[in-house]
Amino acid sequence: MTTSTSIGTPSHPHPGAADALARYRRSARWKPLEYLFWCLPVLAYFAFPGNYLLLSQIAITSLFALSLDLIFGYAGIISLGHAAFFGVGAYTVGLLGSHGLGDPLLGLALAAMIAAAVGFLSSFLLLRGNDLSRLMVTLGVALMLYELANKFTSITGGVDGMPGVEVKPILGMFSFDMYGRVGYVYSVIVLFVLFWFARRMVHSPFGQSLRGIHMNALRMPALGVPVNRRLVIVYTIGAGYAGVAGALLAQTNSFVSLDVLSFQRSADLLLILILGGAGHLYGGLLGSIAFVVAHYLLSDMNPQYWQFWLGLILVLVVLFARGGILGTARKWIESSRHRAESRARSETPS
């Protein structure tokens, strides 16, 4: 009499693996607060009808911050030259418009591809070296592109920029208006779609491996994770996202200037992530809202010294809210929940 032994997949997974899978699925689900957050752009459309241009700027800055958060917040690659990809996207749309190719969706697609290509090529310079060398490489790439845009005035317009960028109606139906209404809706839709893809990515095994690389890049190869390949991929994706943000700015403003490649734009972006909280996706979005609104209000109240007050706010955030807006809020919620649980246990009769 013979007995057969099954070597297939066990019908009951290991309890530890089942718990890990359950935690992963819970983290990937959309939370009620997330649905509430994405209702805010809709409410803003009706609540602030005279500020569509400002709202568009918030949406574009949010996408730009999201692109850096993928690179810095999740993979741990600090960058002071992320405006390079933003500028590439903006100038791509400007050049397309100057040649009669002003279709918005075509501009977004080409801006994403060209910026991603620049990111892919420059990513290999980041694979060897520490954080300081990576910082210098990213800054160097941005400075080179800035000088190239400044030098080739026949193509980029130099310091005069590229005014009157031609942008055709979206899908041939929705023309950009002077009030920025269509531009705002367009920017929010693009932001949401790319955020959805980014959220799927960071909650996937690929995203979890990025967190592991950020925490301990030396240990991940022992787990079979190709660290360099992961870094190249996420850097390329982040560059493509930044290119789309630059393209949106050029399309909604119908103007491209050297400012899109400036060091100031890269530095502001890093401050936005510090303000909102890096490594959370929503941190960059909240930081963008806070930064753009603070910039608008402070420059209106005190045009000469608004940067001083903005700097003071950032210093206070670093000193008293090191996790940024989102990180501090999460710590407060967790501590409140722990206190409530402790109080409930103490009140329960033994």
TrEMBL record:
MF annotations from Gene Ontology: branched-chain amino acid transmembrane transporter activity
Membrane topology note: Multi-pass membrane protein
Keywords, ordered alphabetically: Cell membrane, Membrane, Transmembrane, Transmembrane helix
GO cellular component entries: plasma membrane
Localization, UniProt: Cell membrane
Lineage top rank: taxon: Bacteria
Transmembrane segments: 35-55, 62-85, 105-127, 178-198, 232-250, 270-296, 308-329
CDD domains according to UniProt: TM_PBP1_LivM_like (cd06581)
Main location: membrane
PANTHER family (alphabetical): ABC TRANSPORTER ATP-BINDING PROTEIN (PTHR30482:SF17), HIGH-AFFINITY BRANCHED-CHAIN AMINO ACID TRANSPORT SYSTEM PERMEASE (PTHR30482)
Protein name per Swiss-Prot or TrEMBL: Branched-chain amino acid ABC transporter permease
Species: Castellaniella ginsengisoli
UniProt lineage: Bacteria, Pseudomonadati, Pseudomonadota, Betaproteobacteria, Burkholderiales
